[in-house]
Amino acid sequence: MRRLRHWGPGLLLLSPSLILLAVFVYGLIAWTTKVSVSDEHNALGSKGFAGLENYTNLFTNDINDRFVHSLKNLLIFTLVFLAGTMFFGLLWAFLLERGVRAEGFFRTVYLFPMAVSFIASGVVWRWLMNPNKGDNAGGLNAVLGGLRLDFLQSTWWTDPDWGMASMALPAIWQLSGYVMALFLAGFRGIPQELREAAAMDGASTYRLYRNVIFPQLTPVALSALIIVGHMSMKMFDLIMSVSGPQWLTEVPAIYVWQALLTSDYAKAAAISVVLLLLVAVVIVPYLIYTNRAEKTS
Amino acid sequence: MTTVAAPPPAVETLSPTAPARRRFGPGSIVKYGLAIFFLVVVLMPMYVLIVTSFKAGSDIGVASQWNLPSEWTTASWAKAWAALRPSFVRTFELAIPVALISSVVGAANGFVLSRWRFPGADLVFTLILFGMFIPYQAVMIPLREIVTTIGIPPGISTLVFVHCVYGIPICTLIFRNYYATTVPEELIEAARVDGAGLLRTFAWIILPISIPGFVVTIIWQFTSAWNDYLFAIFLSNTRNGPITIALNALAGAQSPDYAASMAGALITSLPTLVVYVLLGRWFIGGLMAGSVKS
C-alpha cells in the first residue's frame, strides 16, 4: 500500500500518454491487421474473413508483380541511401574532427538540408535530375557536361532499372549532415585519455584511428544505420514530390496510398502490415539491445 | 526518427576537442579542399532555388538553368505567396500548439520515467519508444476511418491532435535522457525527505531547470509538424491543410510554373530555416539528445 502511494502519482501522470499510445499505436495497428485479413476490397466494405489471402496475393498474385516490384525499388533505394549517408556523414565528421577553422559554419551548412521538408527539396531535385542529355542537358547533366564528364550523364530516376538509386540522391543530400552530427558527437565522446594513451604508446595517426577511434564509433554507426534505415523504409514524401506516384518509383509506402485511393482497404492494410513487420524486424532487436546495454552500464 | 538510450543534450560535446594542430601542410590543403568542395555541393540546390525563383519567361528554360536571371523579378514570389498564404498561416496554427503541448507532456513523462520510476518502467518506456519507429501507414487506414465515420472534421485541429499523440515517444525520450543526465538522484531524494510529492517536486524543482530540454523538443516538434506531409495528405486537403499540401499542389500541377514552385519551396522552408539558423546549436543538441548512445 505504501509502495502504491509512492508510485501512484507517477503512474497517474503518465497514464494519459499510455492510454493514448495504447489506443493510437497498438490499438490501431490491431485494427489495421484486422482489415488486412478481411475482404474489404471496395468502399462497400463487405467484412468477411479472408485469412492470409491478401498477403499471399501480394507476393504471388499481384498484377505485374507490383508489390514485389515496389519491394525491389525500396531495397535499391535503401542500400544507396544508407551507403551514401554513412559515407558522407563519416567523411564530413572526420574532416571537422581533424580541426578546421570556422567549424561551426561548415557544420551548419552541412546540416541545414535537414531543416527543409522533403516536399520542398523535391521541387528543386526534380529539376536537378532533368533526364535530358547532350546539348539539351539541364540540371546535374549540364554540370557533368560542363566538367567534360558526359559519360556520367544519366536519366536519373526515370531509368527503369536503376532509377531508385538516383531517387536516393536527394535523401542523401538531406540526411548526410544528420549522420555527420551523430558521428561528430561520437568522436567528441571518446575520452581524451584514450588518445593520449595511444600517443604515449607511439601509435601513428593511422593506427590511432584504425585501432582506437573507429572501433569506439561502432555504437554510433549502429544507431545511424537504424535511424536512416527505418526512415528509408517509410520513405513517402520525397518520392511523392520528385516523381509523384507512378510505377517506376513505387515503394510500399506509396502503394498503400494508391491502394487506398481505389478503396482497396484490405490490400492497403496488408501492405502496411508487411511494412510494419519490415521495420519491426530491425527496430525490436535494437530496442531490446539498447535496453539491456543501459541496464548493464 | 532517432533512437534510444542514455544521455545527453550534448551541446558542449560539440566544441572542438583540441584547439591545437593547426599547421598548414599538404594534409590541410586536402582537408580544406574537400570541406569546401562539399560545401559547394550541399549549397548547389539552394542556388538553383534562389536563382530560379527570381526568373521570368524564357529565362526559366532548361538550357539557362544555372545562369543568373537576365532580369530579376519578384513576380513569381508574389504568385507563390498568393497561393500559399492561407496554408502558411494555418501551418503556424498547427506547429506552435503541437510544439508546446508535446513538450509539456514529454517533460512530465520523461520525469516519471527517469526519476520517479516504478517497477516495469523500462518495459513501459520501450513500449512507448516503439511508437516512434512505426511506419504511420500502419495506423493511417483506421485513423482515416475514425475521422470520416465519426465526422471529426479533417484539417488543422485533427492534425494537432495526431501530431501530439505520435510526438509523445520522441519528447518523452528527449526529456528522459535530459533528466537522467542533468538531475541528480540526490536532489529528488532531498525533496522527498522534505515531504514534497511528485507534482510539487516536478513543478518547483524540475521545471525551472528544464529550459534546455524544452528548447530541444519545441524545435523538434515544430519542425516535424511544419514539414509533415504524410499525416497531412491523409487527414486534410488543400482547403484546410498545411503548407506542404499547398506546395505540392502548386509544384506538382500538370504544367507547373517552375519559378513560382521554387519561390514556394523557399517560402515553405523559411520558418524552419530561420528557427534552425537562430537556434541551430540547440537543434543539433536535440539531434544528439535523441540519438546518441554513450
Ordered list of secondary-structure elements with their pairings:
The complex is a heterodimer of chains A (297) and B (294).
Chain A: H1 2-36, H2 53-60, H3 66-97, H4 103-111, H5 118-128, H6 139-146, H7 163-188, H8 192-200, H9 205-216, H10 218-233, H11 237-242, H12 252-261, H13 265-296
Helix pairs in contact in A: 1-13, 3-7, 3-10, 4-7, 7-10, 12-13
Chain B: H1 26-53, H2 75-115, H3 121-133, H4 137-150, H5 156-182, H6 185-193, H7 198-206, H8 211-227, H9 230-235, H10 243-251, H11 258-278, H12 280-291
Helix pairs in contact in B: 1-11, 2-5, 2-8, 2-10, 2-11, 3-5, 5-8, 8-11, 8-12, 10-11
Strand-pairing-aware structural class of chain A: mainly alpha
Largest sheet of chain B: none
Largest interface: A-B, 110 and 107 residues
3D shape of chain A = flat
What's the end-to-end separation of chain A, in Å? 32 Å
Find the structural class of chain B using helix and strand composition: mainly alpha
Structural write-up:
The complex is a heterodimer of chains A (297) and B (294). Chain A is mainly α and 297 residues long. Chain A has two domains: 70 residues, no CATH class; 190 residues, MetI-like (MetI-like fold, Orthogonal Bundle). Helices cover 72% and strands 0% of the residues of chain A. In chain A, helix 7 packs antiparallel against helix 10. Chain A is flat, with a radius of gyration of 24 Å. The model of chain A has no long low-confidence stretch (mean pLDDT 88). Chain B has 294 residues and is an all-alpha fold. Chain B folds into two domains: 51 residues, no CATH class; 212 residues, MetI-like fold (Orthogonal Bundle). Chain B contains twelve helices and no strands. Chain B is globular. The interface between A and B is large, with 110 and 107 residues.
